[in-house]
Amino acid sequence: MKYVQFGSTGLEISEICLGTMTFGNEADEAVSFSIMDYAASLGINFFDCAHNYNKGLTEEIVGRWLKGRRDEFILATKVFFPYGGGRNDQGLSRRNILASLERSLRRLQTDYVDILYLHHWDENCSLESSLAAVNTLVEQGKVHYLGISNFSAWQVATAMGITRIKSFAPVSCIQPMYSLVKRQAEVELLPLAEYERLAVFPYNVIGAGLLTGKYLTGGSGRLKEAEMYRQRYANPQYEDVTRRFIAYASQKGYSPAALAAAWVKSHPSVSAPIIGARTIEQLQDTLGCLDIVLDPEERAALSALSPEPPHATDREPLAAMKSRGW
């Protein structure tokens, strides 16, 4: 396992982050423990959770496994989505952020989390108030770093501006959706992260299993089990991309899951992709990405299998303008 810098924090993290969303649902506690055991044996020291995963059961499972070895791992959790059933147990209000983090700490059996993500933009709440709440938690030592997930680039930039003006805890990382079929992050989020030295931890790197090709042959998984994922990957163009990608992987002798993760991992702005699994076998398959090193030509060939998103300003890059003499 190689280790990379966590943005500008000075911390070293494994080049893979273990996603835990399956724990307590598709993976029972015994399987979840075996997955974490295996990940730790490889040197993965970075686990990603959320307070709402499986109604808190995911955090409870991770907490029981981490007991006695908490300081060996970088641990992230998130706040936004409903939990607990109360009218105000959702969103990015100060009340919910503080209460959610306390519940997460109890479930995780720890005094602190390394990263607390704002899991989604809250259009009904003052962003300054949300960031002030996280800053309070940082000052209390209950959170070490602020992360942002599922914000657009302008929303991330706005958050960064507020933290600088108010001297709040800075944004240290972002967690965008990113895969060969979901490339919107390339337009503004990844350039922003590179410019600002933010760590980037992408999720859904194999497209909820789409890029493994299993749905082309009638396989089961999230795209068939959850309406959210059916809608997320409903674009028929994604199936066309998948067919081209599976053919390419077969030609090159790669596991599709490993190649899909390797493509994400090879982007220069990506710090560590988040990889989850229902079984050790699935995890082993995807972790084959560690043995795939894509040179620029091969990454470009893979990228050509899917539509490239337009430039943020619909103008050519500076190098292209210079090459044609302006």
List key phrases describing it.
40% helix; TIM Barrel; alpha/beta; 326 residues; two-stranded antiparallel ribbon; 13 helices
Task: Tell me what you see in this structure.
With 326 residues, the chain is α/β, with parallel strands linked by helices. The protein has a domain at 3-175: TIM Barrel. Helices cover 40% and strands 12% of the residues. It contains 13 helices and 10 strands. It has helices at residues 29-42, 57-66, 94-108, 127-139, 153-166, 189-196, 222-225, 227-232, 236-252, 256-265, 280-286, 296-303, 318-323, and strands at residues 3-5, 12-14, 17-19, 46-48, 74-79, 113-118, 143-149, 171-175, 199-200, 274-275. The chain has an 8-stranded parallel β-sheet, with helices on one face. Helix 2 (57-66) packs across helix 3 (94-108) and helix 3 packs parallel to helix 4. The longest helix is centred in the C-terminal third of the chain and has 17 residues, at 236-252. The chain starts with a strand and ends with a helix. The model has no long low-confidence stretch (mean pLDDT 95).
CATH class term of the domain at 3-175? Alpha Beta
Share in β-strands: 5-15%
| C-alpha end-to-end distance | 46 Å
Write down the overall mean pLDDT. 95
Q: Structural class of the secondary elements?
A: alpha/beta
Helix content: 40-55%
Label the overall shape. globular
Secondary structure: elements and pairs:
Layout: E1 3-5, E2 12-14, E3 17-19, H1 29-42, E4 46-48, H2 57-66, E5 74-79, H3 94-108, E6 113-118, H4 127-139, E7 143-149, H5 153-166, E8 171-175, H6 189-196, E9 199-200, H7 222-225, H8 227-232, H9 236-252, H10 256-265, E10 274-275, H11 280-286, H12 296-303, H13 318-323
Parallel strand pairs: 3-4, 3-10, 4-5, 5-6, 6-7, 7-8, 8-9
Antiparallel strand pairs: 1-2
Helix pairs in contact: 2-3, 3-4
